[in-house]
């Protein structure tokens, strides 16, 4: 046990938690738990309620960002770095939550982001609403375990139902699959800053994902940002692209285009070392000094010659390539780039084949990469090295153009969401209608099921059914619609069997969102529901928090030993 946490007291002096006893044999029994001064502990029903309240506060922070009409948040960190975002996970990460129970919500947002990439705001709002609906039960004294069982049952029913009703468009039809993917991407981006350009970007994102191979590895889509230009100037390169690196004189004489070049990827410095810096050499005369200098040049020339003889046309190195080498390559119609970022060099290796070499001793074709076309191209104010037609792995690079830095960062995050969704949808192609349609349908289903159950679960399941309505309600509130009115309409439509009726953001009405192509992969919804329900159960099952002061810290100034106060 950490000595700073709780220690077992063997003395039986005063303690708010009881006293020690001496048994017949006179030996002390370690019965007393004495908390270090400043330790806070609170427990019981009031603890659960206070945790629920803390979670509500967190939910209120992200509530307004949900949906196509949601607002963005501008967050300023301690160092003054400002971030503008609409992404639940990003906001939650930056919020720096200290409340122990409310941190759970941060975690589910993060896990939703990692697992499916979208639905991060929804998951937090859902969890908050589940807790809110469960609060009256806790207050009335229903046991946590019963509530938890009810929540689990409701979630299980809901997930089952999503799987039943999700629509699976035909996968073998390429045109239809593409349409499906583009619609999912457009829905994911509809709520972001770039929603005006969502048609442009959804095509690009689908193109990008289509370029990947079966496993759809995310790190094979590179995203680069160059300030300047319009958002529509953003381009997708079918291959690897990275910014031109620092170069020396002579670089401009090198050719900037090749077809089918061999590519050498190095982790070698091609530069003359200033020998006087490195060692002390005692020399008698000028000839000897010349020999040392010559030796240095010979080593470098030897490397350069080997590279030249190998037939490589493009030489990339993680380490610097100096002026002598640059000139040497220029004279032999070769291209070189030094100080290539590690990530880019690796992606080039994966795409073009070959290996990253630390010696030039054995330069065969097997260690050299190749691609169909290489060129250096001017994009905005920057020059890019672009490799296309890569034989090995399929890869692509999105070069984002735009004004402010924060804007491009948010664009990158939005594209990331959309890419994740398209990947998900491609792997697992069932979709449901968004805009609150699926939540309303689930709500109706749960309400119907609850009526067939006798016992406390009936109330709990119908409470979860009510909680699900928070998504359409919030979508309406954020758009400035009369949410009560629209929810009444939705309830009526769903009762009549119009399964995919949801909020129509454009016309302040309800609409069939399946027809309107507001589609979301069913996996996003399943994951969000399960994560929200898990968080709810977790928070409901905690009835005591013990917080110890940091070790080394003196007793908290206001702290009485074992003071009980809610957080
Ligand atoms: P999240 O981080 O949870 O994805 P968003 O801000 O992206 O949060 O909002 C997603 C919600 O917005 C989903 O419930 C989705 O169905 C809804 N939505 C997206 N596009 C539309 C649209 N065009 N009309 C109505 N609802 C939409
Ligand atoms: Mg989203």
Description:
With 567 residues, this protein is an alpha+beta fold. It has 3 domains: 43-168 and 433-547, GROEL, domain 1; 174-235 and 398-429, 2-Layer Sandwich (GROEL, domain 2), CATH 3.30.260.10; 241-276 and 285-392, GroEL (3-Layer(bba) Sandwich), CATH 3.50.7.10. The chain has 17 helices and 22 strands. The chain has helices at 45-62, 88-95, 103-115, 120-140, 144-165, 174-190, 198-211, 275-278, 286-309, 323-331, 342-352, 405-427, 437-451, 456-468, 470-479, 483-495, 522-541, and strands at residues 6-9, 32-35, 40-43, 73-76, 82-85, 221-227, 235-237, 239-243, 257-259, 262-266, 312-317, 335-337, 356-357, 369-370, 373-379, 382-388, 396-402, 431-433, 501-504, 509-512, 519-521, 544-547. The strands form 8 sheets. Strands 10, 11, 12, 13 and 14 form a 5-stranded mixed β-sheet that branches. β19 and β20 (509-512) form a beta hairpin. α5 (144-165) crosses α13 (437-451) and α5 runs antiparallel to α17. The longest helix is centred in the middle third of the chain and has 24 residues, at 286-309. The radius of gyration is 31 Å and the shape is elongated. Residues 1-24 and 552-567 have low confidence and may be disordered. The structure holds adenosine-5'-diphosphate and magnesium ion (MG). The site of adenosine-5'-diphosphate has 23 residues, from α4, α6 and α15.
Layout of secondary structure:
Layout lengths: L5 E4 L22 E4 L4 E4 L1 H18 L10 E4 L5 E4 L2 H8 L7 H13 L4 H21 L3 H22 L8 H17 L7 H14 L9 E7 L7 E3 L1 E5 L13 E3 L2 E5 L8 H4 L7 H24 L2 E6 L5 H9 L3 E3 L4 H11 L3 E2 L11 E2 L2 E7 L2 E7 L7 E7 L2 H23 L3 E3 L3 H15 L4 H13 L1 H10 L3 H13 L5 E4 L4 E4 L6 E3 H20 L2 E4 L20
Parallel strand pairs: 6-17, 10-11, 10-13, 11-12
Antiparallel strand pairs: 1-2, 3-22, 4-5, 7-17, 8-16, 9-15, 10-14, 15-16, 18-21, 19-20
The protein binds adenosine-5'-diphosphate and magnesium ion.
Magnesium ion binds next to loops.
